[in-house]
Design goal:
8 helices, 198 residues
Length: 198
């Protein structure tokens, strides 16, 4: 009898209070933080099929990493000038994503730390190298960084066109206000035209 009464009370509680909680947003999923939204938008830009079709980048883990690193460097360069803490949180969002991906790929504990360190250092090195080349608005310097790091996973069309794309993106995003980063609305250029010869 007591168990039946308890179940009845539980049913009454769920029927009365759960709808109200949904209305007041108590059980709604949390919105992603600004740095996570920004990272996801940059990741989406780097996944544009044009980089892999017209540009000839390998649609593999290594190929996707090189295209993502280029976009991360462009976004980070401007954001770091606007808000260093936001830029660090943006970088950390990448690290968290790589952490999740490595675990999903089944990388064991024995190799996990070493693999993560290599990925983080690789991205940071590219951000620094691209940042210097973009700061000088030097297409050949951008191409040299791209070739040094990605010539084995990026085709000739990409090695030719991606540096022009990077400079165009740097000009557009270099003028973007902080609101464009916090709203994840960065003005990336047309990727389909990235491999058109000048």
């Amino acid at each position: 009898m007591r168990k039946a009464s308890l179940r009845a009370l539980q049913a009454l509680w769920f029927s009365l209070f759960l709808p109200g909680m949904a209305i007041f947003g108590l059980f709604k999923p949390r919105k992603p933080r600004p740095e996570q939204r920004l990272y996801e938008s940059v990741l989406s830009a780097a996944r544009n099929p044009a980089f892999y079709d017209e540009g000839g980048a390998d649609d593999t883990v290594d190929g996707r990493f090189e295209i993502l690193a280029l976009h991360m460097a462009i976004a980070y360069r401007r954001l770091n000038a606007l808000d260093e803490a936001f830029a660090q949180a943006f970088f950390d969002a990448f690290v968290k994503d790589m952490d999740v991906n490595l675990r999903e790929l089944g990388v064991g504990d024995a190799r996990f730390g070493k693999k993560m360190k290599h990925i983080v250092q690789s991205l940071y090195g590219r951000i620094q190298a691209y940042g210097a080349a973009l700061g000088d608005a030097d297409e050949e310097a951008v191409r040299a960084v791209l070739t040094r790091n990605g010539s084995d996973v990026i085709g000739a069309a990409g090695l030719d066109g991606f540096p022009r794309y990077a400079l165009a993106a740097d000009r557009e995003i270099g003028a973007a206000p902080i609101e464009a980063f916090s709203s994840a609305g960065l003005p990336w250029p047309d990727a389909a035209g990235a491999c058109v010869k000048a």
